[in-house]
């Protein structure tokens, strides 16, 4: 069943956690929430696939969690504030997750942030059509400038 | 934001990276100490601490007598328990609901770094917080958050409620969240300083312009998580239409985010003779740096 289309689908590199994804990802997010308890973290680490069975995940969601495919988790309804708890359970800093999601090394990601972050130029719109509602005080460069 | 908290909690504030961030708040702490508010209303967002996906209130007003710091994975942050102001909170809830806003009343809630870090930035690290706090948690986790316009109008309703409260109180209101950042997906790391500056400029001089920004513009320009900036409009709506900008600070990065900070005050005007002692409302708008799940 395909997702309903939304205007924000045009934003590159972004999975918006909307009501549909919230419903779809309820299991992933409740699984992540369960990791706030130490006993649950231990049980999960002892047998991950078994632990996940309690949460009614789809096979795709289960695979995404087991593989720590953080982007896929978002695509399938996980929310970053929740999936970060999985990262914490693995002893990973948020920067590790950011590196995985952006396809960079942690070092390169940190360096990018120190240098001022990822630019919005070329990153506004997949279609090239996305423009702010009133661009008076914003840069007028189009999304396709790069 | 957790990173700022971790820096405070682990004594890293003198490291060059963090000194740059914290230095911007020295004047703010002085302003707050000089202001001596009777109560602080703190508009903030929870990060899967008090609220999970089971129940997602759009506006949740903390009416309890106490709000303990949440355990976000490393034990509760070592900050004092926040005292609430149940009487003012109940008064605000009643007034605002009758003004046709759909508030969720919360009588038991832990508060995470989204609230406690701004408290540290403006009040330092005291043994007890110098004033009670009324937390107003806004949903920015599930799209859509309330619109900027809705937030602004809620601010006005809160202002009206505070003014009708029988006791004369000095109230500050914090807006937190943002500034530009994205912490999810391949576009994580996004920062847009031009957008941020324009937002801060208009916050002072033309907030109604900001209320017309659609959600997609926030997400596109300022990052998916930059949509938090709508919360600042609650703070702004509670102030007079005309304000003085008494301080501004901006730096990039703090962990994964742009840090923006602005202090606005209602323009002083001579109080009419027939009015009871005027209430002053001042505002500290703050920004939270986002970083999830880490010790920094």
Describe this protein's structure.
- The complex is a heterodimer of chains A (146) and B (296).
- By secondary structure, chain A is mainly α.
- Chain A has a domain at 8-92: Protocatechuate 4,5-dioxygenase, Chain A.
- Chain A is built from 9 helices and no strands.
- In chain A, helix 2 packs across helix 7 and helix 8 packs across helix 9 (106-114).
- The radius of gyration of chain A is 18 Å and the shape is flat.
- Chain A starts with 18 loop residues before the first helix and ends in a 32-residue tail after the last helix.
- With 296 residues, chain B is an alpha/beta fold.
- Chain B has a single domain (2-266, 276-285), classed as Protocatechuate 4,5-dioxygenase, Chain B, CATH 3.40.830.
- Chain B is 34% helix and 19% strand.
- Chain B has 10 helices and 10 strands.
- In chain B, strand 8 (243-254) and strand 9 (257-266) form a beta hairpin.
- In chain B, helix 4 (86-98) packs across helix 6.
- The longest helix of chain B is centred in the middle third of the chain and has 17 residues, at 148-164.
- Chain B starts with a helix and ends in an 11-residue tail after the last strand.
- In chain B, 57% of the residues are buried.
- The interface between A and B is large, with 58 and 55 residues.
Give a short synopsis of this structure:
The complex is a heterodimer of chains A (146) and B (296). Chain A is mainly α and 146 residues long.
Identify the notable features of this structure and list them briefly:
heterodimer, A: 146 residues, mainly alpha, Protocatechuate 4,5-dioxygenase, Chain A, 9 helices, disordered C terminus, B: 296 residues, alpha/beta, Protocatechuate 4,5-dioxygenase, Chain B, eight-stranded mixed beta sheet, two-stranded antiparallel ribbon, 10 strands
Outline the biggest β-sheet of chain B: 8 strands, mixed
How much of the sequence of chain A is in beta strands?
under 5%
Task: Show unreliable segments of chain B.
Answer: 273-296
- How much is the average pLDDT of chain A? 90
Distance between the termini of chain B: 10 Å
Strand adjacency order, main sheet of chain B: 5-2-6-1-7-10-9-8
CATH superfamily of the domain at 8-92 in chain A: Dioxygenase LigAB, LigA subunit
How large is the share of residues in beta strands of chain B?
A: 15-25%
Helix content of chain B: 25-40%
Mind telling me the CATH class of the domain at 8-92 in chain A?
Mainly Alpha
User: CATH superfamily of chain B, called what?
Assistant: LigB-like
**Could you say how many structural domains of chain B there are in total?**
1
Task: Please write the string of helix (H) and strand (E) elements of chain A.
Answer: HHHHHHHHH
């Amino acid at each position: 069943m395909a997702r309903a289309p939304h205007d924000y689908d045009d934003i590159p590199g972004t999975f918006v956690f909307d009501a549909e994804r919230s419903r779809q990802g309820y299991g992933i997010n409740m699984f992540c929430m369960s990791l706030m308890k130490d006993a649950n973290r231990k049980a999960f680490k002892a047998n991950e696939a078994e632990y996940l069975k309690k949460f009614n995940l789809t096979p795709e969601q289960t695979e995404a969690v087991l593989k720590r495919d953080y982007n896929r988790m978002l695509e399938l309804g996980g929310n970053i504030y929740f999936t970060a708890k999985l990262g914490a359970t693995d002893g990973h800093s948020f920067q590790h997750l950011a590196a995985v999601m952006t396809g960079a090394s942690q070092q390169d990601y940190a360096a990018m942030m120190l240098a001022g972050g990822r630019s919005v130029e070329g990153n506004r719109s997949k279609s090239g059509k996305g423009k702010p509602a009133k661009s008076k005080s914003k840069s007028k460069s189009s999304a396709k400038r790069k | 934001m957790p990173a700022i908290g971790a820096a405070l909690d682990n004594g890293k504030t003198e490291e060059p990276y963090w000194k740059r961030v914290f230095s911007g708040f020295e004047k703010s702490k002085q302003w707050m100490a000089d202001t001596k508010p009777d109560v602080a209303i703190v508009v903030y967002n929870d990060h899967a601490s008090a609220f999970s996906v089971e129940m997602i209130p759009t506006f949740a007003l903390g009416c309890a007598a106490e709000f303990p710091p949440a355990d976000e994975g490393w034990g509760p942050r070592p900050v004092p328990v926040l005292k609430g102001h149940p009487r003012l909170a109940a008064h605000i809830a009643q007034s605002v609901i009758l003004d046709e806003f759909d508030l969720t009343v919360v009588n038991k809630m832990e508060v995470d770094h989204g609230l406690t870090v701004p408290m540290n930035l403006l009040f330092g690290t005291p043994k007890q917080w110098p004033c009670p706090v009324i937390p107003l948690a806004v949903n920015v986790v599930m799209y859509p958050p309330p619109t900027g316009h809705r937030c602004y109008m809620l601010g006005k309703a809160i202002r009206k409620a505070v003014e009708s409260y029988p006791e004369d109180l000095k109230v500050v209101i914090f807006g937190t969240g943002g500034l530009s950042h994205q912490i999810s997906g391949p576009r994580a790391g996004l920062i847009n300083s031009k957008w941020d500056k324009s937002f801060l400029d208009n916050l002072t001089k033309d907030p109604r312009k900001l209320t017309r920004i659609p959600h997609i513009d926030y997400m596109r320009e300022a990052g998916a998580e930059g949509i938090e900036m709508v919360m600042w409009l609650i703070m702004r709506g509670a102030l007079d239409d005309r304000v003085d900008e008494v301080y501004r600070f901006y730096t990039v990065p703090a962990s994964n985010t742009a840090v923006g900070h602005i202090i606005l005050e209602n323009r002083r005007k001579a109080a009419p003779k027939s009015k009871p002692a005027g209430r002053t409302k001042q505002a500290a708008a703050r920004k939270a740096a986002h970083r999830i799940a880490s010790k920094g």
